[in-house]
Give the backbone structure.
Amino acid sequence: MGEIKQHSMILRDNLVELSGEFDARDLEYLREILNEAGESSAVVDLSGVTFLDVQTTRELAVRHQLYAGSLAYRRPSWAVRASVAACGYENWFRFDAEEAGDGLVAGLRDRC
């Protein structure tokens, strides 16, 4: 089961750190945290995520669209990038070029 940590940051910005594995058991809590974070400007650090199933990947994509402009995903781990590519959600996410790695997403997408 994944672990979700939420920290206050300077200038009233919120940081939500996701780490571990996320599957259907985590959906309700993940949805609550992302909804709360999306209501105020927040950054979601994805560097500690080691696994996302299809449902949690979709949940991240949906929340990213619902809270566009106020919810930013940063530092996606290899597992996040692989899951996003496997699900075909690359266009739903806007990871910075330097944070999106070395073309891994495009390479994985071509194999699926």
